[in-house]
Design a protein that fits this description.
- The protein has 239 residues and is an alpha/beta fold.
- It contains 9 helices and 10 strands.
- The strands form 2 sheets. It has a 6-stranded mixed beta sheet, with helices on both faces. A 4-stranded antiparallel beta sheet has the order 2-1-4-5, with helices on one face.
- Strand 7, helix 6 and strand 8 form a beta-alpha-beta unit.
- Helix 3 crosses helix 4, helix 3 runs parallel beside helix 5 and helix 4 packs across helix 5.
- The structure holds adenosine-5'-triphosphate and magnesium ion.
C-alpha cells in the first residue's frame, strides 16, 4: 500500500505535480495521462531524482521521501527509465550484477542465484555471457526489466517499457509484467501510453492531468470514464 499525500513539484513556472494525493494498493497499478501530465515526474519523486516542494509518500508504512536515493534502492525501490540504460560493453549477466553490486546483499551465492532467476524470468539465460551490445531492442528492454527484479524489490516503477516494441514483443512484456508479483513479490507502477497494455496488466489505474489527479479506480471503469476520454486523446479506440 502506497499513500501519496499533497505532493507538489514545480519547475520554474510549471507545476509538474500539483498537490497530488492518492492511495495505491493493487499489485499492478497503471499511471496514464497526456504528455506532460506529470507521470515521469511522479516516478522521479519516488526514486529521488526530484525533490518535491511539499508532500509525503508512505510505502508499506515506510516514509520513502525521508530516505536518500540509494537507501530507497536498498529498501526495495526499483525503476526503469524512458531512455535505455543497458551497458553495451558489459555482459548481460554483468549488467544485472552491476545493479546488485550497488545494494548490499548477504552472500555471493545469493547474488548469483538472483541474477540467474531474473535472467530466466525475462528469458535471457542463454545470452547471459553475451555483451550488452549484442542484444536487440526487445532483449535490451527485457534486460532492463531483469535489472529491476534483483535484490528483493518491493516496488518496481516502469516508465513506458513497451514504447517502440513490436506487437508480439509487447505481448511478451505484458506476460512478464503479470508474473512479477507472483515470482518476485513486488508491486508495480506502470506508466504507458499503450492503453491495451494498461487494460491487460493493471488492476487499478491513476489518471493524471496537468499534475493533478483526474480520477483513480479499477482500470476497466477508468477507461470508460468520459473525463478520461476527454483528457486522454485516443482512448476511444479501446472498448
Ligand atoms: N527537469 C525538468 N525541468 C523543467 N521542466 C520539466 C522537467 N521535467 C519535467 N518538466 C515539465 O514538467 C511537466 C511534466 O513532465 P513529465 O515528464 O512528468 O510528464 P509525463 O506525463 O511523463 O509526459 P510524457 O507522457 O510526455 O512522458 C511538463 O510540463 C514538463 O515539461
Ligand atoms: Mg514521461
Amino acid at each position: 500500500m502506497i499513500a501519496i499525500r499533497d505532493v507538489s513539484v514545480s519547475f520554474g513556472g510549471v507545476r509538474a505535480l500539483n498537490n497530488l494525493t492518492v492511495s495505491l494498493s493493487d499489485t499492478v497499478v497503471g499511471i496514464i495521462g497526456p504528455n506532460g501530465a506529470g507521470k515521469t515526474t511522479l516516478l522521479n519523486v519516488f526514486s529521488g531524482f526530484v525533490a518535491p516542494a511539499s508532500g509525503s509518500i508512505k510505502a508499506f508504512g515506510t516514509d520513502l521521501l525521508a530516505m536518500r536515493p540509494h537507501q530507497r534502492a536498498r529498501w526495495g525501490l526499483r525503476r526503469s527509465f524512458q531512455t535505455e540504460q543497458v551497458v553495451d560493453d558489459l555482459t548481460v549477466a554483468d549488467n544485472v550484477r552491476a545493479m546488485l553490486d550497488s545494494l548490499s546483499l548477504p552472500s555471493r551465492a545469493d547474488k548469483e542465484a538472483q541474477i540467474g532467476k531474473a535472467l530466466a524470468f525475462v528469458r535471457l539465460s542463454d545470452k547471459a555471457d553475451e555483451m550488452g551490445a549484442a542484444l536487440n531492442t526487445f532483449e535490451r528492454r527485457m534486460l532492463e526489466l531483469a535489472r529491476t527484479l534483483v535484490g528483493s524489490p518491493k516496488i518496481v516503477l516502469l516508465d513506458e517499457p513497451g514504447a517502440g516494441l513490436r506487437e508480439e514483443e509487447v505481448a511478451a512484456l505484458r506476460e512478464a509484467i503479470l508474473g512479477i508479483d507472483e515470482q518476485f513479490g513486488a508491486m508495480i507502477l506502470l506508466i504507458d501510453h499503450d492503453v491495451e497494455m494498461i487494460a491487460a496488466t493493471c488492476v487499478s489505474t491513476v489518471v493524471l492531468d496537468f499534475g493533478q489527479l483526474l480520477v483513480v479506480g479499477p482500470t476497466a471503469d477508468i477507461l470508460k470514464d468520459d473525463r478520461v476520454k476527454a483528457a486522454y486523446l485516443g482512448i476511444e479506440e479501446v472498448e
